[in-house]
Amino acid sequence: MRIHSSFTKALAVSAVALMSLTACGGSDGGSETSASAGGDDLGLVTAGTLTVCSDIPYKPFEYEENGEYTGFDMDMVGEIAKAMDLKLAIKDVGFDGLQSGVVLASGQCDMGASAMTITPEREKKLAFTDGYYDSEQSLLVPKGSDIKSIDDLAGKKVGVQQGTTGEKYTRENAPKDAKIKAYPSDAEIFPALQSKGVDAVLQDLPVNLEHTQGDKFEIVAKFKTDEQYGFAVKKDGGEALLKELDAKLAELRDNGKYDELYDKYFSTK
């Protein structure tokens, strides 16, 4: 059964990389869309450019490959920028600053695309597009581990990403004597599991699936949490951009591009 999903990360404002891609829009200058006029009425940080903040890496949603940013989120925002006749710029920031609304409110970027789950708490500080991916949580352990369920985490060390729904789920459902260790991102969590700094990792299913490819780790439990990812814009003043993003998301679904990108990253065929 196909599942369409969402995610999160920590610590703001370490903007280390900026990538600009020129969209392949029409060149006849007669476009009637607001975006083709540089997006002036969308309140963009930089006229003519859709600036997107993301916490990278978070494979398969956002990561770097051959010097370029790629992944499901990155390809999606690339298609959205192209449809809006805008260039695309990517900024790598900490997830905590992104999900707290600080990065967007301070004008560092126009939107956030970082596998971010839509939650009531986040909706107090951010405005979200329609959901574009439905996610589950999962428990990753080394093969041969005696941990088979969340109940087996009693007395064990479990790694989570700080500020995420995975951390929240773990704190609410793991045994009271489980030792929960929160890390800024998956870039620190998985090495901790590899080095036996933690006994298990509980986080979004698509990310943990990436770590099973080497045949040394396995997912022993999945948890349905009814999570849905959304792209985020600033709470106040982002209304026009939000409307445009939702319209472009709908177009990607209608023209088949969404399914094409989904299959590229998540198909099990």
From TrEMBL:
Keyword set includes Signal: yes
PROSITE patterns referenced in this protein's UniProt entry, alphabetically: PROKAR_LIPOPROTEIN
For the Ionotropic glutamate receptor C-terminal domain, which residue ranges apply? Answer: 49-268
Q: Which terms are listed as keywords in the entry? A: Signal
Query: Where is the secretion signal located?
Result: 1-25
Domain Solute-binding protein family 3/N-terminal, first and last residues per copy:
49-269
Organism name? Arthrobacter rhombi
Gene3D superfamilies, per database record: Periplasmic binding protein-like II
SUPFAM superfamilies, per the entry? Periplasmic binding protein-like II (SSF53850)
Does the keyword field hold Signal?
yes
Going by the entry's taxonomy, the superkingdom of the source organism is recorded as Bacteria
Could you identify this protein by its name? Answer: Glutamine ABC transporter, periplasmic glutamine-binding protein (TC 3.A.1.3.2)
**One Pfam short name:** SBP_bac_3
InterPro entries registered for this protein in UniProt: Iontro_rcpt_C, Solute-binding_3/MltF_N
A molecular-function term among this protein's GO annotations: ligand-gated monoatomic ion channel activity
Gene Ontology cellular-component terms for this entry are:
membrane
